[in-house]
Amino acid sequence: MTVSYAQQFEDVILWRALKDVRNGAYIDIGANDPVVDSVSLLFYEKGWRGMHVEPMPVYAQKLREARFDEQVLEAAVGESADEIELFSFEGTGLTTAFTNYAKQHQKAGRELTKIKVACVPLAEIFESFNRIHIHWLKIDVEGMEKVVVQSWGSHPARHWIVVIESTRPNSQELAFEDWEPELTKRGYAFAYFDGLNRFYVHEDHAELAATINMPPNFFDFFTLSEHSPFSWHVTGQLHAAEDEIAKLLARLEQLQAERETHDVHTKWVEGELAKAQSEIEERAAAVTWLEDQLAEARTGIETRDGTIAWQQDQLAEAGILQQKILAAEREVASLGAANTDLIVQVGQWEQRAVGLQREMDLWRQQANALRRQSDEIHNSASWKLSAPVRWSGRLARHGIRSTKGALRPAAAGGLSLVRALPWVKPPLLAAASIVPALRRKIDHFSLVRRQEQEALLTPPVAAAGLDAPARHDASDVPLYPRAARILHDLGAA
């Protein structure tokens, strides 16, 4: 399938006539853009090579960049070899050397720019392009067609097909009468008009005229380029789609960048999640430990509660004990008072004991005096001489003392009976009164026994911190029973 890039399908018609030529050549005068409205691009894609003449610097540079293996001449075409001034309208193919055409374009609202470029005759261009056969020549110079054709001069080049724009710039008004004779005298015959361009075939290749005398059709098997004005609607949609695709691609890149950012964030989140999971596990372990500690604390609290309850019980008991202590203190205070009284009494007893000790000392002194006296008597001659008399007397007294010793327990028992049975006392005393000596003995015995019992009932003299009276050894002095007990009690105290 062939792609048409030309504005008026010029490339389709030329290819229909020249498709059997291999490695053909062409010259494009006023080539303009290397793609948009290009007549040569179809042939370039088919392997042809040619020469481009373009006065506008912008388009000449585009041609050099796009067709690096073709010749590009940045110049205008005319009979003079001097520089000429051109009126340029950027972004269009309306560059012209004629002031009237420039004013028309300016009135239409196009911005005018004046430039000066070199001018080269067409014959010189043919000489510079060193090819034997030029299969087609296209001239599109915005009203300068006559000047260009006249600059062909006497050069012998006879190209197979010549295509020239034949209307006035940007109109349908025909304008070919003033330059067509220059072609016809060089052997060219008109073959086809497409509404904008006239096609001429040289007489040496007159057979080609039959291939170009009809418009482009189905059997040419071509398709339009995206830049063709006949596909602007589709091209607009295509451009819109391309813009949408560009937006989608930009959005895709953005999404990919966001995805990369999201992946980084996801990895970070996963890392943070892992950290959080680890921290959760650590905290779970801490919670378990705290629960154990709490259980232990609860156990301790229960134990302490029991201890507190026990302590409370102890405090209650202590309260009771305190009350008892207070009562005891009160009792102690009372006992202290009693003790004070007892101390006073003890002091009285001590005074009494001192008096008794003094009495005992007097008795010991009397006893010692009596013992000395007795010793003197016993050691005297008279005592020794009267021994037989005393012996007979003791024998008689012994019987009497034996009788007294035998009667003493009986008398004590009778006295105990009288105390136990008071009603027996009067009859016994009445019977004893018959013998006055017996009655006296009974009264004396009763008095002695009463004194002995009183002595037994009298508490011993004792006082802490008081010096006891001086004790005298009286083991060698015989004492009465009452005096012996008093002496014993004093020694114990």
What does this 3D model show about the protein?
The chain has 493 residues and is α/β, with parallel strands linked by helices. The protein has helices at 10-18, 41-45, 57-66, 99-107, 122-128, 145-150, 180-184, 232-378, 381-385, 387-420, 425-432, 436-457, 481-492, and strands spanning 2-4, 25-29, 49-53, 71-73, 76-77, 84-88, 113-117, 119-120, 136-139, 161-165, 188-193, 197-202, 222-224. It has two domains: 2-227, Rossmann fold; 347-379 and 399-492, no CATH class. The strands form four sheets. Strands 4-3-2-9-10-12-11 form a seven-stranded mixed β-sheet, covered by helices on one side. The chain has a two-stranded parallel ribbon with strand order 1-13. Helix 12 runs parallel beside helix 13. The radius of gyration is 85 Å and the shape is rod-shaped.
Architecture blueprint of SSEs:
Layout: E1 2-4, H1 10-18, E2 25-29, H2 41-45, E3 49-53, H3 57-66, E4 71-73, E5 76-77, E6 84-88, H4 99-107, E7 113-117, E8 119-120, H5 122-128, E9 136-139, H6 145-150, E10 161-165, H7 180-184, E11 188-193, E12 197-202, E13 222-224, H8 232-378, H9 381-385, H10 387-420, H11 425-432, H12 436-457, H13 481-492
Parallel strand pairs: 1-13, 2-3, 2-9, 3-4, 5-8, 9-10
Antiparallel strand pairs: 6-7, 10-12, 11-12
Helix pairs in contact: 12-13
Brief characterization of the structure:
This protein has 493 residues and is of the alpha/beta class.
Rg, alpha carbons:
85 Å
Give helix % range: 55-70%
Contiguous uncertain segments of 5+ residues: 460-474
- Overall geometry comes to rod-shaped
Structural category is: alpha/beta
- Tally the structural domains: 2
Distance between the termini: 158 Å
Mean pLDDT: 81
Q: Characterize the main sheet.
A: 7 strands, mixed
Please tally the β strands and state the result: 13
Architecture of the largest domain, CATH level 2?
3-Layer(aba) Sandwich
Strand order of the biggest β-sheet: 4-3-2-9-10-12-11
Strand content: 5-15%
The number of helical elements comes to 13
Quickly name the level 1 CATH class of the largest domain. Alpha Beta
- SSE topology string: EHEHEHEEEHEEHEHEHEEEHHHHHH
By CATH, the topology of the largest domain is Rossmann fold
